[in-house]
Specification:
Order of helices and strands: EEEEEEEEEEE
Helix content: under 10%
Length: 122
C-alpha cells in the first residue's frame, strides 16, 4: 500500500510563491515516477508536472514552464512543487500522484493524494 499526503496549499496573492509538498510512505519502491495534477470543479484532472523518481527527468505543462519547479528528495520520500509568479488562473485543487510510468497522463498513475487547495487572489 502507498500513501501520499500533500501539504503547503493555501491562499496567496497574484505574483506570489508557494511550495507544495507530497510525502510518500508505504511501498515506495513500486513506482518510478511522480507527478502533480490539478482539478477544478466539474473539470478533468490536468497535468502540471512530472518527475522520475531518480530526479533525472522532468516535464511540465506549458502553463507551468518557467514558473513551476518539480523536485524530489529521495531521502525524505518527498516530492515538491515550487510555484512562483502565481496567477489567479492557477487556482485549483492540486493532487500529487505516483505511478509505474513517467507520463503526463493521469491514467498512468496508480496512487493519489487527497489534494490541497491552492487559491491565488488578484
Amino acid at each position: 500500500q502507498v500513501q501520499l499526503v500533500e501539504s503547503g496549499g493555501g491562499l496567496v496573492q497574484a505574483g506570489g510563491s508557494m511550495r507544495l509538498s507530497c510525502a510518500a510512505s508505504g511501498r515506495t519502491f513500486s513506482w518510478v515516477a511522480m507527478g502533480w495534477f490539478r482539478q477544478g470543479p466539474g473539470k478533468e484532472r490536468q497535468f502540471v508536472a512530472a518527475i522520475n523518481w531518480s530526479g533525472g527527468s522532468t516535464a511540465y505543462a506549458d502553463s507551468a514552464k518557467g514558473r513551476f519547479t518539480i523536485s524530489v528528495d529521495n531521502a525524505k520520500n518527498t516530492m515538491y512543487l515550487q510555484m512562483s509568479s502565481l496567477k489567479p488562473e492557477d487556482t485549483d485543487v492540486y493532487y500529487c500522484a505516483a505511478g509505474r510510468r513517467y507520463s503526463a497522463l493521469a491514467s498512468n498513475y496508480d496512487y493519489w493524494g487527497q489534494g490541497t487547495q491552492v487559491t491565488v487572489s488578484s
